[in-house]
Fold these 2 entries.
Entry 1:
Amino acid sequence: MPARRAGMSHIPVLLNEMLDALAVRDGAVYVDGTFGGGGYTRAILNKADCQVIAVDRDPAAIARACDLQKEYPDRLHVFHGVFSSLPTLMAQSQFDQIDGVVFDFGVSSYQIDTPDRGFSFRFDGPLDMRMSDDGESAADIVNTYDEEDLANIIYTYGEEHRSRRIARAIVELRKVKPIQTTLELANLIKSKLGGRPDAQHPATLTFQALRIKVNNELIEIERGLKFAEDFLRADGRLVAVTFHSLEDRIVKSFLREKAVRKHKQSRLLPGEKAPSPPSFFDLYPKGVAPSESEISVNPRSRSARLRAAVRLPSGQQGGTDA
Ligand SMILES: C[S@@+](CC[C@H](N)C(=O)[O-])C[C@H]1O[C@@H](n2cnc3c(N)ncnc32)[C@H](O)[C@@H]1O
C-alpha cells in the first residue's frame, strides 16, 4: 500500500446539499458510487435507518469502507469496482432497484496527497495516476504514445491549447530517457511554457488530461448516469458532484436530454424524430455551488458543482407548456 502523509483526510464537499438533494429517509436503499474517504456514506447512514451500497475502484478506499462496515454491519454493503460495473454488482446483490445514487467524481484528497500515487506535481513520485491498481499508468502513456495522440489527449481532456508544444517536448525528452516521475514531467512543461508566480502551474491541465485518460473518467461518468436512469425507482434521486467543466458538461447535457424541460416543443419539424419521454425532473437547472464559508474552510471545494434530479415513472410525459 502506498506511503501516506500524516494527518491525511478528505473533507466531503457540499455535504448538507448532497443530503438534501438525496432526500435521505428510513427504509431506503442508496448507492454511493464514489466512496473515497466515506464522508458521504457515513452521513447518509447517520441521517436515516437506510442501506448504503458503497463502491470504489481504489483498494485503499475499499479498505476504509471495510473499516466503516464494522460500525454498520447490517446497513453498509461494500463493493470494489468501477461504477460502470454497477449493473453487474447489482445483479450479485440482494437489491434490484434503488432510491438514490450519489457520485462525487474525481480524486479524493487521500489519492492526491499520497506522493506514491503520482497524481500531483506538488510532490515527487512515480508518474502513476491509477485510481485502481491495474491498467496503463500515466508513465506508460507519456513514454509510449505517439506525439499526435499525446497532443490530442492533452487538448481533449485538459483543454490545454498549448498541447502540441507539450507533446513535442515530451517526445524530445523521452528520446534521451523515459519520463518516470511527476516532477520530471512538471519541470519539463514548466521549462517549455514558463509560468507566472500568481498563475496556476503550467502542468495543471496536462496532469488533469493524463489522469482522465488513465482512468477513463469521462466514459465512466456517462455509464454511471445511465446506471442511475436504469436502476432508480420512480421518485428516486440522482445526485452528482463535479469538479471541472468537462465533468459538469457531461452531467448537464445528460440532464438536458433526459429531464423535463419547461419549454418543450409541442410540434415536430418535418423529418425530426420524436424525443423520448423524459426520465428525470432536474432539481437545480443551474447547479449548486459551495458557499463562501465552505470555500474558506475547504479551498478544494471551490470548483465543485452539485446537480440533482428526481427519477420520473417510466413513460411519464413531461413538459409544462406543450
Ligand atoms: C472525490 S472522492 C469521493 C469522496 C467521498 N464522497 C467522501 O465523502 O469521502 C472520489 C472517489 O471516487 C473514486 N472513483 C473515481 N472514479 C471511479 C469509478 N469510475 N468507479 C469507482 N470509483 C471511482 C475514487 O477512487 C475516489 O476514491
Entry 2:
Amino acid sequence: MTEPIIQLKNVSVEFNSKKKQVSAVNNVNLTINKGDIFGIVGYSGAGKSTLVRLINLLQKPTSGQVIVNKQNLLELSDKELRISRKKIGMIFQHFNLMNARTIFNNVAFALKGTDLSKKQKNDRVNELLDLVGLSDKANNYPSELSGGQKQRVGIARAIANHPDILISDEATSALDPKTTQSILELLDQINKKLGLTIVLITHQMEAIKQISHHVAVMDQGKIIEEGSVYQIFSEPQKSLTKSFINTTTRLDETLKVLYEQENVKHLSKDQKLLSLSYFGDSTDEPLISSLYEKFQVSANILYGNIEMLQGQPLGNLVVILSGTEQSVQNALNYLNESRVKVTELNPSEGDINELN
Ligand SMILES: Nc1ncnc2c1ncn2[C@@H]1O[C@H](COP(=O)(O)OP(=O)(O)O)[C@@H](O)[C@H]1O
Ligand SMILES: [Mg+2]
C-alpha cells in the first residue's frame, strides 16, 4: 500500500540579499510515501537542507504547497503547526547535544511539555536508550561518547515523541565508514520496527545505496532524477547521477588502472573493450559463455562485480571480446539486444565518464 505522507507541490525558495538572489529550491515536486526510506543526494549547495526544512516549515516556501500527513502546513495556525512539527523528528551532522546534561537528560529534554508522568518519562527514556543501544551510557556526558554514540543519542531524542517522519540531514557525514554503516543499520531497523518514514539527506551515494528504497538526485535547486534505488542504480539517465553511482562502485578508478595494462593499451581491430552492466533477470543467463557458442567470440574478463541491491542482483563486467571483426560485431549486436547495457570503451581516449 502506498500512501503519500509528504507532498511538496511546485515549491520554490528564494533567498534575496543585496548582492545576489539565490534560487535554493526551484519549482520542486516531490511525493514521499508512508514507511519509505527516501534518499535525497546532491553536492553541497544543491538545496537539500533548504528542501527538507520545508517539510516542517522551518523554512517557508516563496511559492508552492507543503502537505504533510494530509495537512496543508501553510494553512495551519501557529499552535496547529507546533503540534504537527512534533510528528517530525530531525537529526543532524553535528548532533546538537547539550554538553552540560547527561545522556539520559538529553533524551528526557525532548519529553518536556508532554503530559507524561515522571515515571512514564523515565520509562520512555530508558526504552529509547535501549532501542539505540546506549542503556549503559545513561549517566555519561556527551563529551564521553564517540561520534557514533552521540548520533545514537540524537536519534533517541528525535524519535522520543513517536514521530511519523524522521529527517536525517547529513547525519552520517561526520562519521567514519564503519560507524556510518552502524548508524544506517539503526535507521533501517527503526524504519522496519516503527514504520517510521525516513528522509535521508546526504552527499554520500553509498549511504543511499545501503538503506534507501527511493532516491532523488538534486542539483541547483532542482530534482533532476528520481526513482527506486534499483532503477536509478541500474539505469541512471543523468551524468550527475552516474558520477554519484561511480563513487560507490569505483568503476572509474578500476578503469584507470585497466587502461594502463599492456593488453588493454594495444587492442587489435578484432578486439573490443566493453563495459557490461547487467541487472535483474539478465544475470541468470550464461551470456559470456554463449558468446563463444554463438559467435566464436571469446571474452577475457578483466573486472567483475556483482552485488545485491534491494534483493536484486546488479553487476558490472569489463571484458575484452576477441574474434574476427565481423563476429565481434555480431556478438556486440547480440549483447545490445539482451538486457545488458553495453558501453564500448576507448582506452586511448581515456573515456570513463560515460559509465555507470
Ligand atoms: N538562510 C539562507 N540565506 C541565504 N542563502 C541561503 C540560506 N540558506 C541556504 N542558502 C543558499 O541556498 C543554496 C542551497 O543551500 P542548502 O539548502 O544548504 O544546500 P545543501 O544542503 O544541499 O548543501 C546555497 O547556495 C546556499 O548558499
Ligand atoms: Mg545541507
